[in-house]
Amino acid sequence: MAFNINYRRLVIAAVIIILSPVACNNGTEAPFPSNPITFVVNWPAGGGMDRAGRLVAEYARKRLDVPIAVINVSGAGGATGVRHVAESDPDGYTVGILGASLVASQYINPNANSVDDIDIISFIGPDPAALQVRSDSGINSLEDYVQRAQSDPTPIKNGNDAPGGVSHIAATLLQRLTNIELTLVPYRGYAPTVAAIVSGEVQSSTLPVHQLIDQHEAGDIKILGVMSEERHFMAPDVLTFKEQGIDLVTGDWRAIYLPNNIPEDRHAFLETLFFETISDPEFQEAARQLSFFITPMMAEETKQFVEDFDRSLYPVLLENGLVKARQK
Amino acid sequence: MSENSSGFGPKNQFAAGLFLMVWSVIGWLSLIGSPALWVNEYGVDPGPSLLPIISLTILSLGALALIGTGALQTLVQQHARTRYWAMLIKGSLMPGLFAISLIVYITLIDVVGFIPMSAIFSITWMYILGVKSGNRTYSSLLPLVAIGTFIGVGLIYFVFLYLIGVPIG
Amino acid sequence: MITEFFSIASAVATDPYLLGLSALGTILGILMGCLPGISSTMALAILLPVTYAMSPLAAMVFLMAVFSASVFGGSISAILINIPGTPGAIVTQLEGYAMTKDGRASEALTYSLFSSTIGGIVGLIILMLVAPLVAKAAMQFRSPEFAMTTVFGLTMLAYSTPGSTFRGILSGVIGLLCGMVGFDLVTDVPRFDFGTSALQSGIGLVPLTVGLFGLAEVFRGIEGGVKGARKTPKLGTLVPSFEKVRRLWKTILRGSALGAIIGAIPAAGSAIAVAVSYAQEQRFSKRGNKFGTGVPEGLAGPEAANNACVGGALVPLMTLGIPGDTMTAVLMGALLIHGLRPGPMLFAERPDFVASVYVALFLALLLTVVFGFLLVRHFVRLMRTPDHILLVIIAMLCVVGSFAIRNNITDVYIMIAFGVIGYVMNRLDIPVAPLAFGLILGPILEENLRRSLIISDGSWLVFIERPIALTMLVLSVSALVFPLLQRAKILASNLKR
After folding, report:
1. Domain-ending residue, one of A195, A223, A244
2. Which residues pair with C162 in a beta bridge?
3. Where in chain C are the domains?
4. The last residue of a domain, from among A220, A244, A268
5. How many inter-chain contacts (B to C, CB under 8 Å) are there?
6. Which positions in chain B touch A14 (Cβ < 8 Å)?
7. Does A214 fall in a domain?
């Protein structure tokens, strides 16, 4: 008998739970944001983009009364996550983080979104590429490297991403600007590339600075140059390419974006929120620990940056036969 | 032939071969339909079509072998009539219905919302399967279905949607 | 190293806060690991921000507990509902789920818990004693070796799959083809995508295994009119008799050794280790021909190997600063946020830190046993839920779990498709496990094969010139040829008669 009573209670509880979301929607309009915000990372959990995204979300949450849920929508080289945000309701409750892959995949992948399909609201920072060589290769400077590549009949093997990836683009740009021929060996992601150069399968790599900083300090690997405007805070002794006479600035970067057509006030709210979060010294300190370069920018500047990046990237992709989706 | 001794019936051989053949036909069609794979300008890289061709060749030959042995055995051995095909289709009826209802379920989650749609799906199938299993009276079935739905849907909602924030529905 | 290990161990063992954290991490890890769709990586990534405010030692204690416990959690769902939580658990279910169907679920879980703990400890000991050596050996493993080891893994699997070897190979080939869906790594050309963006990201391992094993099993339960799909599990005694465990000693040690060594190879580690261990146990076991019907050796060996890989996977991270898989990548992120950059420098200069990682892992292993034993009983009790309720809940879990892994609705459709495919393959007596392995190993094989050729400038000799690659190649060929020779002999003698 006792069982039956329990059953009845549970049935009632079940009905209440099932109906409760219907009842919730009847309230009056609260000031934005009144619901949890979804923060979309377009790469899988555990990677650099995920780390950056979760850190930004964590610090943005402290400035809000509502929670931020970080989700990973990955696939198709980052394009799936961008699509998820681009096609979400333009109510300001879906925010995303993305990087250079957006610009590349709009040309490579016919099914990817273009830069115009989304609204980039703030810049987090660049993640410049660099050129690393094994110390036992006997190459000591960028000049040596170029000379070796031009004179040696067997091309230097360089470890990088699949075509269209950031370190592949860096390697291609390097070839173009210095007139050298490398054998580009593709790896799936940064960690396998690191393993490849450490084990000696390739002689050089075009990875971001922080990937091999420890080996650089230990002396097994030498970073010949950084492909950024200014030197990297983690390797202040390493010259930039520009300082060495080669005008090569490239690499990944990270930015926050929204779907298009967000109401004016919510757009402004989110733009300020993320700009302030990224400018927060406490956040910047945490980000430095994770080896992220932080240079906050508001929407206007960020859009200009992305446009410039787009312009420098297009010829590289065209040359590699990677412009398959839309022409420029 | 090992196939003979492993105790597969001839019709099973034939059906398994057919199943594998469907895969290889779809594979070949897709491969032939993507001209980008046939461009041979990859230098020392054997290209993106090498492994697909090897795999599809193995699969097609294997499928043909199974179909062949199946057909031969049926002709030679004059097996007793075992309504194999009818049994195969009849047995798959309920699972097929279940699969279709799953697709309807996930399509409607977006429209109706996760909790109501899951509750409908869960109550319906728990009830149908409960009746089918036949060892319960209708009155004892209802509370059990309600509790099962409540706990099942509630738990999934709590862990996946509430705690982790999975954006389904 | 040993002195640091003990001094930190005693510090941790007397600190109720750290013990509590480890316990919490263990429980969360087991619970998250056993839910389909929450991978170890996801569990770690979700819990990572919690550790930002902790001390580095506390963060390590907590995350190691989650890491190690979620691997065991993955085995729970493999054994109870035929859904492997991690790639390493795919073999677990071959024997484990067979035992569950036989009403021996708690026995299976206990074997799994026992052998995974020993595997984990052996892995840890090897990590502690010879990490730099293992790392050096692992660095000898380059693209040609990867390619040939993968070939070896595939042949071992084809050779050991329960059921027909011939059909096993064909099923593995389907897996290879599924692994090719999406963008090609070397050229970035989409393959087998049928022109839709849905298939461009490829077929994920989680949707595939959840469908192929989990949902297919639900279909099978429904087909059987629900009745008699499974025997109701007996709770039974949890601790198997000493005699039973003693008989598994060698199996567990063999599995552990394999796992610790193969686990240090980045990316391929656990999947190949369990496949090799399963094949090996089938060879050694007197009940080899009964594999697939619930033989403890076939469960204990791979489980030990799977968990020994945890230690192995940490080797490249600790010694070289290279995360071998996504799980160790999250751990690396956790260390970075505290200003600790794992790598050769940290390994040489901060033995106390290195020791604290070992202590954290050791504590996690111990607590996994404790909470594992406490929880197993309850998990098994869950299986006493009437089938018509349980099957529907599992089906919904399959849907939400396959969605949650990438938050992509395509994955759910893929999961359902593979549910149907798995069901059909069961009906037609085509083994399904090789398909899943083909999907895991196929891309690794192709990528490394083609990369080897790029590096060797197109010369196929690269696979023969390098000793490790050659060994693997010879082993694979002989594994395929010897059974054929034997069969030919039997056939010949049959013909004579």
Report:
1. A244
2. none
3. 2-496
4. A244
5. 193
6. 119, 146-147, 149-150, 154
7. yes
